[in-house]
Amino acid sequence: MANPIITKKYRFCASHKYGNQAWTEEKNRAVFGKDYRNHGHNYILEVSITGPIDPGSGWLVDLKQLNVLVKTHVVNVLDHSQIERDIEWFKDKQPSSENILIWAWNEIAPRLEKGTLHRLRLVETHSIHTDYYGPGE
Questions:
Q1: How far is CA 66 from CA 39, 77, 123, in A?
Q2: Beta strand segments in the chain, E
Q3: pTM
Q4: What sections of 1-137 are H helices per DSSP?
Q5: In this structure, how many other beta carbons lie within 10 angstroms of the beta carbon of residue 52?
Q6: What is the C-alpha to C-alpha distance for residues 109 and 119, in angstroms, rounded to an integer?
Q7: Domains of the chain
Q8: 9, 60, 103, 117: least surrounded by Cβ within 10 Å?
Q9: CA angle (55 as vertex; 68, 52 as ends), nearest 5
Q10: How far is the C-alpha of 129 from the C-alpha of 137, rounded, in Å?
Q11: Residue-wise pLDDT tens digits, 63-81
């Protein structure tokens, strides 16, 4: 029997600005358009965990523990930040959804006590979301 997957959603607001300091302002504007200016999103982060079900509790992960982990190491760090300026990991990286998920995976996966991180999904707008299944996928 395959293990179930449980998904918990978290919300945070953050701003960012795309740009490459090695490029001219004209190239930055051509590549990034209006996103070359500082702007923000109301993000939704979906954290999906898989693993065997604990026979005593019937759960594959303790959601209270997961909440503490994700809020402490991801949501509270990102919330109301300007990502590329406030979070050291992004100092030389674009604050894209793709990079946010790689950073978040590295914050969550090694700290899980039970279960395995299966997928992260970051919803940026009503029409854009990005999925990440970890470095091995």
A1: 29, 16, 19
A2: 5-16, 39-50, 81-82, 116-125, 128-132
A3: 0.93
A4: 25-32, 63-70, 76-78, 83-86, 97-108
A5: 12
A6: 10
A7: 5-132 (3.30.479.10)
A8: 9
A9: 65
A10: 18
A11: 999 999 999 999 999 999 9
